[in-house]
C-alpha cells in the first residue's frame, strides 16, 4: 500500500470515528457501469403564481394568502446510446387540463422535435397549488378578473414548461441510472375508513381496511460520480392541507428534505396511483411535514442500500384510448340539472347546454392517454392519465413483474379512473360524479378497466419487443 492510499484510509477512519459522515454524505451503493450508456439533463423552475390565481380544488373560491414554500416544475431528459430520448416533467400542479398539455406537446414537437410518446407531463395533484386553464372549470364561481388571471398564468406555465424541457435537453451529459424501492405507510384507503375514526384506530393499533400501495419506488441519476437527481413516487392524495397558502403538501416537504440532505441532487415526485388514498389524519402543517419526512426517510433508506444499475436502451410507446361513457347527457337531462341546488352541478349543466346551443355534439368517449417506457432491461414505466385508483398500480405490478412503476396523474386531469371493483361499489371515485370534471356524462362505462388493461398490455409488449 503506497503512502497516498495509507493517508486516505487513515483520513476516512478518523472521519468515521468522529461521526462526521452522515447518511446523506455517504456514497450511494451503485456499482460502476463502465462507459456511460445514458445521458441525462435536468432543469427546474419556480411555478408559484405572482398574481392572485385561486388555489385549485375543493370546489370553492380560495384566494391565496402567502406561501409556506415555492412550487416547482422539474424536468428530467434522458437519452440512450442510440439517441432515443424521453422527457419526464414533474410539477406541483393540482391538475393539468388537456387544453394546456396539448399546446405544450405541440410546442415541444415544433421546437424540440419531441413526439408525444417521448414526453410524460405529470402533476402531483397538490391541492395547495394554482388553477390552470379549464381544469375543474365548473368548480368555481365565475369572476371575469379570475378568468383572466388564470388565462395569463396558464400561458406563462406553458412557456415555462417548454423552456425547461429545452434547458434539460441542452444539459444532457453522460450519466448512470439506478433504481430501488422503499416503503412508507401514511396513505389510507379513504373509501374503506372513516376519516374521523382513523386516529383512534391507529392509536389502538387496529388494522385499517382497504387496499393500499405503500411502495416508494426510487430512481437515481448520477453524473460525473455525483448524485444529480432523485425521482421517487408514492400512491396518495396530496390533500393533507386545505388552507389558503401555496405549498407542495407532503410531496413538497419530502422534496425539500431530500434536497437539503443531498444538495447536489434535484428531487422529483410522481403520484403513483393515489386516487382513492388519503394521508390520514390530516389538516395541519405539522402532519404535512411529518408525512413529507416519512416519505423522505423511505427514500433515504433506499439510497442507503445497494441500488440496481439500469442498463442502456430506451423505448417508448403511447396510445390515446377512447374511454367510453355509460351514457351521454341529453338536453332534457341537462335542463333538469340546470337549477340544481348543488351550485357546481348547476354551473356544469348550464355550460353544457351552452355548448349544445353552439352546435357541439357530445362524444360518447374521451381520449385517454397511456404511456409505456422501458429503460434498459430493468425498468418499465406505465403512465396513466388522471386520477387512477390504487387497483391499477397493484394490478400492473402483478402482471408485469418486478421493475414495474405505474404513474398516475399524467398528461390530463380528466376525472377519477375507477377499477371495475370501484365502479361496481360506486361512491365518490366510482359513481356518477363526472360532472365535477366537466365531462358530458355522469359516469364511465363499467368496462373501462378491461379496455385500459388491454391497451397497457399492447404498449408494454411493444416496448419489450427485442430489436
- Please provide the count of β strands: 17
Shape: globular
Helix content: 25-40%
Beta-strand share of residues: 15-25%
Order of helices and strands: HEEEHEHEEHEEHEEHEEHHEEEHEEHHH
* Radius of gyration over C-alpha positions, nearest whole angstrom: 23 Å
- Secondary-structure-derived class: alpha+beta
The largest pleated sheet is described as:
9 strands, mixed
Q: What average pLDDT do the residues reach?
A: 93
Contiguous runs where pLDDT drops below 50 for at least 5 residues: 1-33
Distance between the termini: 47 Å
Which structural traits does this protein have?
467 residues; alpha+beta; 12 helices; globular
Please give a structural write-up:
It is a single chain. By secondary structure, the chain is α+β, with helices and mostly antiparallel strands. The chain is built from 12 helices and 17 strands. The strands form 4 sheets. Strands 1, 2, 3, 4, 5, 7, 8, 9 and 11 form a 9-stranded mixed beta sheet that branches. α2 (98-112) packs parallel to α3, α5 packs across α6 and α7 (331-337) runs antiparallel to α8. The model is unreliable at 1-33 (pLDDT under 50).
In short:
The chain is an alpha+beta fold. 33% of the residues lie in helices and 23% in strands.
Topology readout:
Layout: H1 3-18, E1 38-46, E2 72-80, E3 85-91, H2 98-112, E4 119-121, H3 144-170, E5 173-183, E6 187-189, H4 198-203, E7 215-223, E8 226-234, H5 249-261, E9 266-271, E10 277-279, H6 285-303, E11 308-309, E12 314-324, H7 331-337, H8 343-357, E13 365-375, E14 379-384, E15 387-388, H9 390-400, E16 404-407, E17 416-417, H10 420-425, H11 427-430, H12 448-464
